[in-house]
Design brief:
Layout (H helix, E strand, L loop, with lengths): L1 H23 L5 H27 L3
């Protein structure tokens, strides 16, 4: 499960970097930014779910 969580965090970081790159452009594409933000939110939700699930599992 840790590898999966690490993968999700890595993917979210990549999306965040693309958001920053798009914002830095002279004329950012609003649709692309919106789509990237939605993707980032989905990753955040998944990460929170996995972390919450890991806390509830007996060790």
């Amino acid at each position: 499960m840790d590898q999966f969580l690490k993968s999700l965090r890595n993917r979210k970081a990549i999306v965040e970097a693309r958001i920053n790159e798009e914002r830095a452009r002279p004329a950012p594409d609003r649709f692309r930014l919106h789509t990237l933000r939605q993707l980032s939110m989905q990753f955040r939700t998944q990460i929170e779910f996995v972390e919450r699930t890991n806390r509830l599992l007996p060790t």
